[in-house]
């Protein structure tokens, strides 16, 4: 699992966010201009893009939440170990590191919400004439 190393976790998230990062470009290349309307099916393009976006959001949210749960369990174990042996420097150091990582992971969940909102807004602006998802 990618959770133990937060920097590796962030690298993986960054790769998973490529579609959201390039949403404007993707929309501009997927949706035809007036002169190309007959050559490209904008409804299909928007529908396919919508499903790609949703899949990416679900996968990232799942990965982040899984890491939050794993890290929270680790924090609980370290808190128990600290209660058993309050003077163990190594346990205290590991506890602080895990608590910091847990806060960073929770922040990533907030970042994910912002990215989802931005992507959804841009998608709706460009595709509203061609495709309206059922769940929005």
Walk me through the structure.
The model has no long low-confidence stretch (mean pLDDT 90). This protein is mainly alpha-helical. The chain is 77% helix and 0% strand. The two termini are 33 Å apart.
Summarize it.
This protein has 136 residues and is an all-alpha fold. The protein has helices at 6-16, 18-21, 23-30, 42-84, 89-127. The protein starts with 5 loop residues before the first helix and ends in a 9-residue tail after the last helix.
- Low-pLDDT stretches are none
Radius of gyration, CA atoms, in whole angstroms:
21 Å
How many DSSP-defined strands? 0
Helix share bin: over 70%
Q: How many helical elements?
A: 5
Q: Which of globular, elongated, flat, extended, rod-shaped describes the shape?
A: rod-shaped
Coarse structural class: mainly alpha
Strand content: under 5%
| N-C termini distance | 33 Å
Largest sheet: none
Output mean pLDDT: 90
Question: What order do the SSEs take from the amino end to the carboxyl end, as H and E?
Answer: HHHHH
Topology:
Layout (H helix, E strand, L loop, with lengths): L5 H11 L1 H4 L1 H8 L11 H43 L4 H39 L9
Helix pairs in contact: 3-5, 4-5
List keywords for this structure.
77% helix; 136 residues; mainly alpha; 5 helices
């Amino acid at each position: 699992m990618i959770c133990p190393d937060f920097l590796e976790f962030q690298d993986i998230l960054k790769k998973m966010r490529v579609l959201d990062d390039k949403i404007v470009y993707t929309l501009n290349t997927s949706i035809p201009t007036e002169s190309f309307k007959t050559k490209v099916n904008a409804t299909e393009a928007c529908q396919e893009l919508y499903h790609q976006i949703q899949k990416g959001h679900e996968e990232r949210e799942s990965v982040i939440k899984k890491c939050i749960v794993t890290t929270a369990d680790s924090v609980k174990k370290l808190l128990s170990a600290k209660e058993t042996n309050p003077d163990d420097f190594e346990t205290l150091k590991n506890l602080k590191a895990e608590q910091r990582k847990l806060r960073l992971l929770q922040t990533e969940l907030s970042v994910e919400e912002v990215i989802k909102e931005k992507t959804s807004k841009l998608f709706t602006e460009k595709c509203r004439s061609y495709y309206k998802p059922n769940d929005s």
